[in-house]
Write a structure and sequence with these properties.
Elements lengths: L18 H18 L3 H15 L8 E3 L2 E8 L2 E9 L1 H4 L7 E5 H8 L3 E8 L6 E8 L5 E7 L4 E2 L5 E5 L2 E6 L2 E5 L20 E6 L9 E4 L6 E7 L6 E7 L5 E7 L8 E4 L7 E5 L2 E5 L4 E3 L2 E3 L4 E5 H5 L5 E5 L5 E8 L3 E8 L2 E8 L5 E2 L9 E7 L6 E7 L6 E6 L3 E7 L9 E9 L5 E9 L7 E4 L14 H8 L4 E5 L9 H5 L7 H16 L8 E6 L1 H12 L6 E5 L18 H4 L5 H7 L4 H4 L8 E7 L8 H12 L5 E5 L10 H17 L8
Parallel strand pairs: 34-35, 34-36, 36-37, 37-38, 38-39
Antiparallel strand pairs: 1-2, 2-3, 3-4, 5-6, 6-7, 7-8, 7-9, 10-11, 11-12, 12-13, 14-15, 15-16, 16-17, 18-19, 19-22, 20-21, 22-23, 24-25, 25-26, 26-27, 28-29, 29-30, 30-31, 32-33, 33-35
Helix pairs in contact: 2-6, 2-14
């Protein structure tokens, strides 16, 4: 079908905080709020979501740093959150004694800023200083300040950066690597890339002006970003720098600092530019994303190999294969402890954990793993012990936290109580046949007494992100327990079956994502699990683009769509905020050959009159500085121009997640579920 138009009368809505644009936002927010938030059901949905998000009984997830376990916590009394710590012995009790280091609510009130916690990076091995990142309203851009942990105070004259999309990491207690939006660069080029991330890295010493810090590495303006990291493994301290030439490719180097800044040695780590690599002690692991021939043997995408790192740098390619994918199994993650390498694999989207002994690479058993759960490595100690922390959950099993060692096994140390009674809720996996014959897995979660009913189909389909089974707390109480059917899709573009499940759907293959999602929608109806008027779909960010395509290319398959923080104008996405960084995923719309295939699905350009448009709810955030809110605004404006009814809600805060605190998240969630119950939930299937 031909693209309708490239004309854009709504460019003015891209002015994020412009008076006219914000007036438009408020005018569109109010009718949606008035319509969807006044019922008793909305109040119940919002209260349930907030209770789940705020409950003190949920797991306080931690990271070990030295002798302490650190946690960031939000609840009803502390909506902006507390950064705090405790000991392992105390953590094991039902009521740990928490030592509060930073109260973000108190800090925000004292400074008159809408601070949102954006993370803490601590120095090793002392862990007495932290680089704290604070965001205004939830944006990706953040300010950075140095914090002294023993004295509970900000370091006067310490490392500090103004608001920017910075990268900063410790070299030692008095030196950091920093990439930020510098006022000037020695080469006269911009300090940030066209994607809005740091282009240069400097070595910054305490007590000096960051503007005077020497540049140790620089990339091109067309790169996505550059970065640097110092590893702190005793006896194996190394420095690495990297140029991300696009979202999936990078040029990687070891940086060996010289006696002064002019003597630094840069050594290329000659692995495939699209591979993931890691250096641990004297081992180099390489996880391929495309076929790679080593010593005459071609290995498929998704293979994990290990080399002797010093020998590799001299050209020796002697290696051992640690993992080989097959048609059903892929490697999702790997992590080191002091003695072992832990592999997390997926077999038809079901998790398995394997443990290998470092050096011999012989498998060992890890005792204490639960059955039929999605498992993930949350933290591990690669330097000092074999301690490991794992998460476990399923669609119907509330999260639990396991702790132990790879030598002695693991056990549940914390568990979150169930958000709803799932004793009569079951999960089934089905496979739909896509247009090209590929089998697409998806999960259906519903009450056993519900044979067919209103169904909510969720999808993402991009950036190699696998959609694995995880606990549906809010969806469980506000959708499934009320009789709704929940559907999680594992469409191409994700990483459920390894890199090729993703790479075949990049650029010109993007149509496969949408064909897969549509195939699942048809399969749900064909199996009698729902009807077309009772079927809704939901997605955000790249999943919001998916919703836009469903609205403009497959509207006849759905009764309602919920589209959040989306990409929709694919003609201009690369010009807006971080959009340029995603051209390796979608293509370059300024290249006529690539615009040819992008134009076949770009929702903003393909929106036209006469579509059987489903009921539509659009949500976004003014403070999203990753995906521009102009995508959502312009799409809604054009929908209204064409006479389509649409509900719109834009959170003035919230960043790319759409919410800056639990209350905002609960409100946004309740808004979506109320919309769904009023639309597909009120359809008479007969």
């Amino acid at each position: 079908m031909d693209v309708v138009t490239n004309e854009d009368p709504y460019l003015w809505l891209e002015d994020v905080t412009g008076d006219d644009a914000l007036a438009w936002v408020r005018e569109h927010n109010q009718p949606t709020v008035d319509e969807l938030t006044t019922s008793d059901r909305f109040a119940e949905l919002e209260a349930a979501a907030l209770e789940i998000l705020d409950t003190d009984e949920r797991i306080p997830y931690v990271r070990r740093r030295g002798d302490f376990l650190y946690n960031f916590w939000r609840d009803a009394a502390h909506p902006k959150g507390l950064w705090r710590r405790t000991t392992l012995d105390s953590y094991r009790t039902d009521t740990p004694e928490w030592d509060v280091l930073i109260d973000v609510d108190a800090l925000a009130e004292a400074e008159g800023e809408n601070w949102v916690w954006a993370g803490a990076t601590m120095n090793r091995p002392a862990y007495d200083r932290a680089l704290i990142s604070l965001s205004r309203g939830g944006a990706d851009a953040a300010v950075v300040r140095e914090y002294d942990v023993p004295t509970r105070s900000w370091v006067d004259g310490g490392f500090a950066l103004p608001e920017a999309k910075s990268q900063v990491g410790w070299i030692d207690r008095d030196t950091v690597y920093v990439g930020t939006d510098f006022a000037q660069t020695p080469d006269g080029l911009p300090a940030i890339t066209s994607s809005g991330y740091p282009r240069t890295v400097r070595r910054w010493s305490r007590g000096t002006d960051v503007a005077d810090a020497p540049t140790v590495f620089a990339g091109e303006v067309s790169d996505v970003a550059v970065g640097a990291v110092c590893t702190h493994t005793p006896g194996h301290v190394r420095h690495f720098v990297s140029r991300s030439t696009d979202f999936y490719n990078a040029l990687d180097y070891e940086l060996r600092p010289g006696a002064d800044d002019t003597d630094d040695e840069l050594i290329r780590i000659d692995v495939p530019t699209d591979a993931h690599y890691d250096v641990r002690l004297d081992w180099l692991t390489v996880l391929t994303r495309s076929p790679w021939t080593v010593d005459g043997t071609e290995y498929p995408a998704g293979t994990l190999l290990v080399f002797d790192y010093p020998a590799y740098l001299t050209g020796d390619r002697t290696h051992t294969v640690l993992f080989t994918p097959d048609a059903h199994t892929s490697l999702q993650d790997h992590a080191y402890t002091k003695s072992h390498l832990v592999l997390v694999t997926l077999h038809d989207v079901a998790t398995r954990i394997e443990v290998l002994t470092l050096g011999t690479w012989e498998p060992v058993e890890l005792d204490g793993l639960p059955e039929l759960a999605t498992l993930g490595v949350l933290d591990a100690d690669p330097d000092d012990s074999d301690e490991i922390w794992l998460s476990a959950s399923s669609f119907t099993q509330a999260p639990s936290l396991l702790q132990g060692t790879t030598t002695g096994g693991v056990a549940v140390i914390k568990a979150t109580p169930a958000a709803y009674d799932s004793s009569d809720v079951s999960t089934q996996q089905f496979f739909a046949t896509s247009d090209d014959g590929t089998q697409i897995p998806y999960f259906v979660i519903k009450r056993d007494d519900v044979a067919s009913g209103p169904a909510l189909q969720y999808g993402y389909g991009g950036f190699e992100n696998a959609m694995t089974p995880s606990y549906l707390g809010i969806a469980g109480r506000n959708w499934i327990a009320r009789g709704g059917v929940y559907v999680m899709t594992n469409i191409r573009g994700g990483g459920e079956y390894g890199p090729e499940w993703h790479t075949q759907a990049q650029k010109a293959g993007r149509h496969l994502v949408y064909e897969d999602f549509a195939a699942v929608a048809r399969d749900l109806v064909a199996r009698g699990l729902t009807t077309t008027p009772q079927l809704a779909a939901q997605g955000g960010s790249n999943g919001g683009l998916l919703m836009g395509v469903m609205a403009t290319s497959y509207p006849e398959l759905f009764g309602a769509l919920v589209c959040s923080v989306p990409l929709l104008d694919m003609r201009r996405y690369h010009l807006l905020l971080a959009g340029a960084s995603w051209m390796a995923e979608y293509g370059d719309p300024d290249d006529p050959a690539e615009w040819e295939f992008i134009s076949q699905y770009s929702p903003y350009q393909r929106l036209r009159a006469g579509l059987p448009m489903p009921a539509f709810l659009m949500t976004t955030s003014t403070r999203d500085d990753r995906v521009h809110p102009g995508h959502a605004r312009k799409f809604v404006a054009r929908m209204e121009e064409l006479g389509y009814p649409v509900r719109y809600y834009e959170n003035i805060e919230g960043g790319h997640g759409g919410a800056a605190d639990n209350r905002q998240a609960a409100f946004k969630s309740a808004l979506s579920y109320e919309f769904l119950w009023r639309t597909i939930g009120s359809v008479d299937p007969n």
